[in-house]
Amino acid sequence: MRLDKFLKISRIIKRRSVAKEVADKGRIQINGKLAKSSSDVKIGDNVKIQFGNKTLEVKVTELHESTKKDDAEKMYEIVSETRTDSAEN
């Protein structure tokens, strides 16, 4: 499944266009490698996303073509969630 579609369906990022923009700016890694919006996501992959002053790392547990809100959270498990102070930037 494409990275931008996974982020939208799992509801990590609400819109696919935003997910594409974040990926294309080099803020997402899959298994430690820089990822584009078209990168392939598989079960077991670690996805690290940089949002402003927050970094979210999740492990892909399920892939679905579409989901209900309750099922979206089952598509991933949070590995870590860290905040960086603006003083460090």
TrEMBL record:
Keyword Nucleotide-binding: no
InterPro entries: RqcP, S4_RNA-bd, S4_RNA-bd_sf
Stretches assigned to the RNA-binding S4 domain: 1-64
Keywords: Protein biosynthesis, RNA-binding, rRNA-binding, tRNA-binding
Example GO BP: rescue of stalled ribosome
GO molecular function terms listed in the Swiss-Prot or TrEMBL record: ribosomal large subunit binding; rRNA binding; tRNA binding
Keyword Ribonucleoprotein belongs to the record: no
Segment forming the signal sequence: none
Cited function: Key component of the ribosome quality control system (RQC), a ribosome-associated complex that mediates the extraction of incompletely synthesized nascent chains from stalled ribosomes and their subsequent degradation. RqcH recruits Ala-charged tRNA, and with RqcP directs the elongation of stalled nascent chains on 50S ribosomal subunits, leading to non-templated C-terminal alanine extensions (Ala tail). The Ala tail promotes nascent chain degradation. RqcP is associated with the translocation-like movement of the peptidyl-tRNA from the A-site into the P-site.
UniProt record similarity statement: Belongs to the RqcP family.
HAMAP family: RqcP (MF_00871)
Subunit relationships: Associates with stalled 50S ribosomal subunits. Binds to RqcH, 23S rRNA and the P-site tRNA. Does not require RqcH for association with 50S subunits.
Name recorded for this polypeptide: RQC P-site tRNA stabilizing factor
Record lineage: Bacteria, Bacillati, Bacillota, Bacilli, Lactobacillales
